[in-house]
Design brief:
Layout (H helix, E strand, L loop, with lengths): L4 E6 L3 H12 L4 E7 L2 H11 L3 E5 L7 H11 L4 E6 L2 H13 L3 E5 L4 H7 L1 H12 L13 H9 L4 H4 L9 E6 L3 H9 L8 E6 L6 H11 L3 E4 L10 E4 L5 E7 L2 E7 L11 H12 L3 E5 L8 H9 L3 E5 L8 H8 L5 E3 L1 H14 L7
Parallel strand pairs: 1-2, 1-3, 3-4, 4-5, 6-7, 6-12, 7-9, 8-9, 12-13, 13-14
Antiparallel strand pairs: 10-11
Helix pairs in contact: 1-5, 3-4, 9-14, 11-12, 12-13
Length: 364
């Protein structure tokens, strides 16, 4: 008999609690072992029931969901899927929850909750399944003042690395990630100097959240981080985030690399898809590309990373110990696409050294 995933639902709305528990209980491989209307009740139920996964609302009485998440991850790290509201404030809070260690999130509608959550049921149960297998230990050490700490920690870069115009303008770095990727991407970008070549990022994320994600990274990184804009020239010292719900790839016009952002079909069920970005890297950038595939479920980007390698790129893949979910990196390794397998912070340092040492190798 297959062991069921034990889920605790924490939400101040009786309707949402009922809907989520019903969605969970319809699955053959999971069960809702309890519901709580606030974090204090949830705390007692966690001790009693030892759930495998918690779904957690952000705005709740008696204790804010983020405060509860921070305490949970410090004292009893448990996989958490956030149930957030798709608003600007909700997006900010969701990004903070991911920093604190939440595995993933689902954005619930503000109106039409019954139909909205029913439409999201497949997504909800898929994210619960992924969370049940996630390595949350790596996310249990984030401090509330992490922004200031990160800036101080990475601000001292050797002069030989951070000198202006020390990097080639022909190089491009391509990063792909899914579950757990927001923190892994941050760990890389905060370590790159201000004159680093352009970085293109596809993180699996729905519309409404990538702009907030880019803004948070921009506040931490020496690079200028923004959502990618169709037709925009890709410049050194900048990082470009694929907008949620759209496909993102690179093209070339004369001496310039350009961003292409378009409403294409989902690839590997994703929009944006890492596969789309990496395939364009192989075709357009060739040996001037560096590929990075980070934590995530599934195989999106793995085959295309191998295409990048065959076209002459040098590729980094996140190691299992530092991954929240090792699915995408594992697939890339099996494809023979990885030149080095490292944790994110070491990937950043390796990129700096290798990009500086490598000459321009653009080929038409």
């Amino acid at each position: 008999m297959v062991k069921k995933i034990r889920v605790l639902v924490v939400d101040d709305s009786a309707l949402v609690r009922s809907l989520l528990s019903e969605i969970v209980n319809r699955q053959m491989d999971m069960e809702c072992v309890g519901v709580a209307n606030d974090p204090l009740m949830a705390r007692e139920m966690i001790r009693e029931l030892s759930p495998d996964v918690i779904t957690l609302d952000i705005e709740m009485p008696r204790m804010d969901g983020l405060d509860f998440l921070a305490r949970l991850m410090r004292l009893r790290p448990t996989p958490v899927v956030m149930i957030s509201t798709l608003t600007e404030h909700g997006a900010e809070a969701t990004m903070r929850a991911l920093e604190l260690g939440a595995v993933d999130f689902v954005s619930k509608p503000r109106i039409g909750v019954v139909d909205g959550l029913s439409d999201l049921s497949d997504q909800i149960v898929e994210k619960v399944r992924v969370a049940a297998k996630a390595n949350v230990r790596r996310a249990a050490t984030v401090s509330p003042s992490d922004g200031a700490v990160l800036r101080e920690r990475v601000s001292v870069i050797p002069p030989t690395v951070a000198t202006r115009n020390s990097f080639s303008t022909e190089k491009l770095v391509f990063i792909g990630a899914s579950t757990g990727g927001t923190e892994a991407i941050k760990e890389i970008l905060i370590r790159l100097p201000a004159d680093f070549p352009a970085v293109l990022v596809t993180q699996h994320m729905p519309p409404g959240f990538t702009k907030t994600f880019a803004a948070r990274l921009n506040g931490l990184s020496k690079l200028a981080v923004q959502e990618a804009v169709n037709g925009e020239r890709l410049l050194p010292g900048h990082a470009y985030i694929a907008p949620g719900g759209l496909q993102f790839r690179v093209d070339r016009s004369g001496a310039n690399y350009l961003a292409v952002v378009e409403d294409g079909e989902p690839v590997n069920r994703h929009k944006p898809s890492v596969e789309v970005l990496f395939k364009s890297a192989a075709k357009i950038a060739g040996r001037n590309a560096y590929g990075v595939l980070l934590t995530g479920m599934g195989n999106d980007g793995a085959k295309a990373l191998r295409e990048m390698k065959d076209a002459g790129s040098y590729n980094y893949v996140q190691d299992e110990a530092s991954c929240i979910v090792f699915g995408m990196p594992r697939e890339a390794i099996l494809q023979g696409a990885a030149d080095e397998v490292l944790p994110p912070a070491e990937i950043a340092q390796a990129l700096i050294s290798r990009v500086k040492a490598s000459p321009d190798r653009y080929r038409v």
